[in-house]
Write a structure and sequence with these properties.
- Keywords: Membrane, Transmembrane, Transmembrane helix.
- 73% of the residues lie in helices and 0% in strands.
- It has 66 residues and is mainly alpha-helical.
Length: 66
């Protein structure tokens, strides 16, 4: 199997795009994990604050669920 210059360049380019995609995917996965952790901590802080304040909600009950 003989590869000329153009085919080698295309193969290298394809491998570079694949590497870039993998780095980007890893970053997105890290961000998603961080965001879920941050959101859980925020909810825990909010729940603790509401429990400390007596659990009363100052918002009026209105709408189909309240």
């Amino acid at each position: 199997m003989n590869l000329d210059g153009q085919q080698i360049f295309q193969l290298v380019s394809l491998l570079c795009v694949l590497a870039l995609f993998m780095v980007n995917l890893r970053g997105q996965i890290r961000y998603r994990r961080w965001f879920k952790r941050w959101e859980a901590q925020r909810k825990a802080r909010r729940d603790a604050e509401q429990a400390r304040d007596g659990g009363t909600d100052d918002r009026p009950s209105s709408g189909p669920w309240g």
